[in-house]
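Notes, Module 5: Reading structure tokens.

Key idea: the token line is not a picture. It is a compressed description, and you learn to read it the same way you learned to read a sequence, by spotting repeated patterns. We will look at two proteins. The first is printed below with its tokens.
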Amino acid sequence: MPDALTALWSKVKQVDDCLLWTGTVRKDGYAVVWHDGRLHRAHRLMWETENGPIPDGFHLHHKEECTNKACVALEHLELLTKSEHHKLHRRRQETCKRGHYFEPDNYFVDSKGFWHCCTCRRDAQNERRRRARRSRASV
């Protein structure tokens, strides 16, 4: 593991308070690295290399003062429960992609933690029903 750790740290450059990954960075801004035959997010791999596996039910989060997703500085990362993590990100997103507000009675979180707009879901169900009625009427 020491050789793997040295190789990981060789891809890091200090910029201000951040340790930025100089290897591959995806379009969404997250740094990625191949390790043990699979692709990992660099910040997660660095965390796990230093602190051990991320416990089930927890998410690794870039703290508020560090908005750079390519940063792998351990002091800029924190473990949050799934619900804490979603609350933080929910705070930044006030509406769905169609502009409906995420009020307490207008969203639900699926089993994977994704937020869904109840208004959009209801509109989509109504549209499917209208199409089904039209197709039955035309037969």
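Here is the second protein, with the sequence above and the tokens below, as before.
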Amino acid sequence: MSIDEINIAKYLIIIELFILFFSNALGGRSALFWAVIATSIIFSLGFIFLLSMGSHAVPTSVITRTTFRVILVCTFLGLGIAALYSENKIYSIIGYIWLVIVCVSVVRLFVLSIVNDPVYLEEKKFREERRHHEKHLKEKEQYKAELSLISLQYENALKNISDVDKFISYAKKTAEQYKNTHNAASDIDAYMLNLMLGYLEKEEYKFARIILNRYLDDILPFIELVDNRENMASLGLYISIKLNDDEVFERVKVELLGDNFKADELSSPTLLFNFACYYSLRQDKKHTLLYIKLARKQGVLPESFLNDSDFIHYLNDVDFLNTLKIE
């Protein structure tokens, strides 16, 4: 036994003597009192025995903490019982109050020991993780069902204009429900993109504009987790070019790319090409050349500009032709 452990054993003996002395002074040694004292003595001896044997079955810190708690409770109970059974009425009242306080404290100590117990906390953490996992699986299965319905409605909307509103309304509901889920945001964004592309291929430009505006108004606020919006912005610019709609152009810039976006940070060749087309039609040479230069760096071939009627104003422009040569 170490010096600290010997000192602990000494303190335990002092506690026993303390109980016996004050109980004698109070004069209330009942059978219940002796039961409490016996419990305290047994725990004291057990504590000393475990320390002397160098037990490795239970950590010393656990043994010490548990033993002290039991002995201290026995000490307070012993004093309270001795006072309660005393012939002195004042001592009896004090003993009754004392026991109530001790019992409340013991219950509180018991509850706290359970709540703060490492094993309990580990089990609680495990239960919470399992519940979270089960909830995630349930939401995943539910989302699969939702996605199947969205896919069906998308197919109908692609075939019939009358079904587009129904599809967008359901897509909005789903986007709102799963707005914190990256996969849901990406899936819904992809469906809206393909729907718009489908009507552009049919040359339904005005209806494609309606879809774009519905996307910006109803869907975009709930799919903030979508990382890349350049493809949607590219379609939006294409619509603004076909319909000569500056309002759509501004909405695309502000709401999809951000009002302070930097042109040289855009990575989509199609988006850069469409910017060049838009500014060329407005004979904004400075911005036209800027986006041609950036598009060329992204791999757009010179023939794409030379063969596009949007650049007819610059076919004989030296700066335009020199920009096309940039590798």
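Summary for the second protein:
- Residues 55-59 have pLDDT under 50 and may be disordered.
- Residues 127-256 form one domain.
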